[in-house]
Amino acid sequence: MLDIKFLRENPEIVKENIKKKFQDRKLPLVDEVIELDKQRREGQAEADEIRANKNKISKEIGALMAQGKKEEAEAVKAKVAESAKRLAELEAAQPEIEAKIREIMLTIPNIIDDSVPLGKDDSENVEVTKYGDPVVPDYEVPYHTDIMKSFAGIDLEAAARVAGNGFYYLVGDVARLHSAILTYARDFMINKGFTYVIPPFMIRSDVVTGVMSFDEMDEMMYKIEGEDLFLIGTSEHSMIGRFKGEMIDEAELPLTLTSYSPCFRKEKGAHGKEERGVYRIHQFEKQEMIVICKPEESMDWFHKMWSYTVELFRSMDIPVRTLECCSGDLADLKVKSYDVEAWSPRQKKYFEVGSCSNLGDAQARRLQIRVKGEDGEKYLAHTLNNTVVAPPRMLIAFLENNLNEDGSVNIPEVLRPYMGGLEKLTPKNA
Description:
Distance between the termini: 57 Å
Oligomer: single chain
Structural class: alpha+beta
Largest sheet: 8 strands, mixed
Number of helices: 13
């Protein structure tokens, strides 16, 4: 959410930013919120003036009564009653105006960084760099669920009977591999100096609106019936919400946190063949990284964070690339975002396995996460988040890139301690 003062003083910058994000339908909102803000400030000024005159008028009435000027005193009393009625009207109108201003401000997108490429949607995202050599073997790479089934490692049919489509049972070595990757990712981030956290898996509505846009909320979140609670779509939501209303001592920054959680998502998007199996699902687990820092340090942390994900994937012999999200592909709160994509030998292309985002002070403003500097100055923190690893989607890349012609799957050295020393998974029918 933008600072209302910034919008008031820079309406053309805000409008130009809306155009860059190809959201022209929101352009009238800028003038609407400016008018509402003017009404709010004028109403506040008038109410303050009425309150300031109250004591003065009371003294005037007393003086008139003391002088025996009853009729004049009654006339002033009538004016007081009129002023009191007007004050009540102003006080009643203010919350409604403020609520409308906030509602609009929550839908106006954050100012994107100057370095963000312009584009309408994800088809215009820009490749930043590649790591590792993408290989297409001279033998067939089966569909990822077929690889899992060769290890008796997945049961989609039973999951559909129990919970419906978009769920899964992972079994045996595949389930163990899933947990091993998460545990390795946890330790990887701890070794980078991040503090490990397990957060609440449900959050209240005021936290939801503090950490994400309305569009994201509608696309993603599951509401708990009869409760002011939502299932989290990622641990970022409750991790950032943890600092709601907090005043953080500047000396404590940066806060570098890595969190584990299950994630729950509606996933309303396309469900083609490549998005079946365990690619686009309603429930998965993830290791996340969160940074809360000074504004001047957020871009440095942004670049560190996505590089950690690249390093993790490369340590498991998976080629990856980073894409910069163009203006039209950025969610409204984001200043800048990179997607990390892994190579799929079967599809002969890259696919998304993680996303790194700098949200500037947007979440901090919504949730009032402030910092107290050494000089006593108070300011809003910057918040960032990034996927460390999100199996089971990551398992697709892992299995395909470590698959041998005989159907076995190599276990990279870094994962062997988490797999009981196993160097290779062998199909059950081998």
